[in-house]
Amino acid sequence: MARKEQIVKQSWKPGNVLSPLPVVLVSCGGTENWRPNIITIAWTGSVCSDPPMLSISVRPERYSFAIIEATGEFVVNVPSLPQARITDWCGMVSGSRVDKFAEAGLTPAPALQLACPIILECPVNIECRVRQSLPLGTHTLFLAEVVGVQVTASLLDSRGKFRLDKAGLLAYGLGQYFALGPVIGSFGFSVRKRRRKK
Ligand SMILES: Cc1cc2nc3c(=O)[nH]c(=O)nc-3n(C[C@H](O)[C@H](O)[C@H](O)COP(=O)(O)O)c2cc1C
Prior knowledge:
By secondary structure, this protein is mostly beta strands. It has a single domain, classed as Electron Transport, Fmn-binding Protein, Chain A (Pnp Oxidase, Chain A, Roll), CATH 2.30.110.10. It is built from 4 helices and 11 strands. The strands form 3 sheets. The chain has a 7-stranded antiparallel beta sheet, with helices on both faces. The chain has a two-stranded antiparallel sheet with strand order 6-7. Flavin mononucleotide binds near residues 58 and 139.
């Protein structure tokens, strides 16, 4: 019988070590008073199924913070590998100084439900309306309801299933960007009966 390897642990000070996270491009603005802007966000997550809700955490000093506070809406655009460099860049410069859509060569396209544009090049666009904002400390959590979703049609298979595995999505953790690996199972695969080979 194989012996279990001993696992040795080290204590770290409490911190944000949860990894991997999705890294997303949040578009905001696009109303009379606010031109469209993009902010890179790693602190995001789904929080409720019905109504569908997600959260983003934004530092109040970000230019995008004022826009989201004023307009009460934003779009979570999920980038793919070709947008990795742009994703990093949108997190390095401020929309108070540059037009990130123009500089990055990204296309603002109409959302289904919001005045705020989606980023056309991103395979998934999740339109969100802010329901609550919660100051936590360094960051304010925006709790938002998903009011519209668009996906790039060329990523659907013949049955209409969205091929996430073909989208080439990114992950982020401990300061590094990762490409996602292959599909290794689907929801419930651990309890599903295997088909016997004849
Ligand atoms: C990978 C990555 C993840 C980031 N995640 C967050 C985040 O979750 N919340 C936040 O407030 N800023 C985050 N930032 C920093 C902002 O994207 C950055 O300050 C940006 O320039 C702000 O743009 P703005 O001034 O146009 O709003 C992140 C940056 C990078 C590169």
